[in-house]
């Protein structure tokens, strides 16, 4: 029995993007093993999408964590662009049924192959970049990766926990956090938070949520007290 062709509209809905040149999406979904590939596959778009993804994630991290040093931003970037993260995004988009594969690859279950899914994720980003420009590709990346930005799948060192442990080790009361300023519209607020620890100078942090601002404030105090260095800051 012939395999039922999936409805491409469902994928476009998940992507939140409509192509001016649908052939670009078709190329992004074509594995080199596909019988009609004719030497064409997603590989060139993957090459481009990898670079676009890195820039878009770097920009997103720069805006989301205004108090983070270069070391932490680099570690977060590496976490977000790794193969497993890209494969997770492709799985969320449910690209598997749309992949054009050779018969052998399809029977071998390659629609769930993490490497292929990661490659196709980057190829789709590259296709959107060619079709709609950087802003369209950046918006796609932000929609898809926002949850991973805010909640990494692998734990990074948590500044709030580290600060509480430091205070406890010195026999001090737990740190306290207070919002000192909130600006921006309700759908995109920005918070400024102060953290206080007995015997230490108050430190401040900013972010797009209270949690992020609190982490930034705790990070600043740890750095000020010399508990963390820039090399250690944000390490997993």
Automatic annotation (TrEMBL):
Subcellular location: Cytoplasm
Annotated ranges, domain DRBM: 158-227
Active site: 50, 122
Signal peptide: none
Superkingdom of origin organism: Bacteria
Coiled-coil region: none
Domain RNase III intervals: 8-133
Annotated GO biological process: mRNA processing; regulation of gene expression; rRNA processing; tRNA processing
Record's catalysed reaction(s): Endonucleolytic cleavage to 5'-phosphomonoester
InterPro entries found in the cross-reference section: dsRBD_dom (IPR014720), RNase_III (IPR011907), RNase_III_dom (IPR000999), RNase_III_sf (IPR036389)
GO molecular function annotation: double-stranded RNA binding; identical protein binding; metal ion binding; ribonuclease III activity; rRNA binding
Main location: cytoplasm
Chain residues that bind Mg(2+): 46, 119, 122
Example of a GO cellular component annotation carried by this entry: cytoplasm
Keywords assigned: Cytoplasm, Endonuclease, Hydrolase, Magnesium, Metal-binding, mRNA processing, Nuclease, RNA-binding, rRNA processing, rRNA-binding, tRNA processing
Cofactor: Mg(2+)
Family: Belongs to the ribonuclease III family.
Function: Digests double-stranded RNA. Involved in the processing of primary rRNA transcript to yield the immediate precursors to the large and small rRNAs (23S and 16S). Processes some mRNAs, and tRNAs when they are encoded in the rRNA operon. Processes pre-crRNA and tracrRNA of type II CRISPR loci if present in the organism.
Protein name, entry field: Ribonuclease 3
Higher taxonomy: Bacteria, Pseudomonadati, Pseudomonadota, Alphaproteobacteria, Hyphomicrobiales
